[in-house]
Amino acid sequence: MKQIQKINQLETLSYFGVDTISQITDLEGNNLYKNITRWVKQGRLMQLKKGLYTTNRYYNQLTTKNSYLEFISNKLRYPSYLSLEYVLTKNQVLTESVFVYTSISQKTTRSYTNNFGTFTYRTISNALFTGFTIIQKEGFAIAIATKAKALFDYLYLKLYREALITQQMLVELRLNLDEFTAADIQNFSNFCGLSGIKKYKKLPKLLFANHDN
For strand 80-82 and strand 100-105, is the pairing parallel, antiparallel, or unpaired? Predict the structure, then answer.
């Protein structure tokens, strides 16, 4: 069987690594990497990051590509979950559009840019690696923060180096908190308490001082 026919067997996979390509083609070493480089240039394979790929045909047949990219954001750096600006924009908490897939990871800070977009990852302590759910969209399982956790992650990282957090600092962030319910606020407060840091424990009262819900 020709190598390109073997590659066609990968068209049902959402993503795969070099080992999978090697198993399918029986190629190894330099031969393997030369062929992968050629297939990427030809557009048969699409590189998600170094060592991770999908096929052009698989991607192009998707009816909802954004669900796939949200799913892939979890895989580029694992474990991770979508959060921060991306989730806050989806929930209209941030008014400016964000075109980057922003995530929280237990690994070091990293960013990947490919033909699909930019995927950034920020680090948080293991104790705070929580507050996300696994949702099903278009057949993909996606780890994504709740609205309250995305807000906590955003403020936690943005204000981490500030010795004191003031109400004016929060006002200047121009956050839209109109859709935060009492349950959302309690959820946010729980994460602030979980941080174990005094300035964050005071954050809920500062942030929601004039909130009606």
Answer: antiparallel
Express each pLDDT in 33-46 by its tens digit: 999 999 999 999 99
> Span 189-207, mean pLDDT?
96
- Give me the pLDDT at residue 211, please: 67
User: Does the predicted TM-score (pTM) go above 0.90?
Assistant: yes
Asked whether 134 and 142 are in contact (CB, 8 A), the reply is yes
For the chain, domains (ranges, CATH) are 3-60 (1.10.10), 65-207 (no CATH)
- Rounded distance, CA 34 to CA 6, Å? 16
**What does the alpha-carbon distance between residue 88 and residue 85 come to, in Å, rounded to a whole number?**
5
Question: Residue 211 and residue 180: Cα distance in Å, rounded?
Answer: 9
Q: What gap in Å lies between CA 26 and CA 19, rounded to an integer?
A: 10
What average pLDDT does range 57-62 have in this prediction?
A: 96
CB-CB neighbours of 213 under 10 Å: 12
Opening angle at CA 164, ends 158 and 167, nearest 5: 80
Beta strand extents in the chain (DSSP E only): 16-17, 45-49, 52-55, 80-82, 100-105, 110-114, 117-123, 132-137, 140-145
CB atoms within 10 A of CB 12: 9
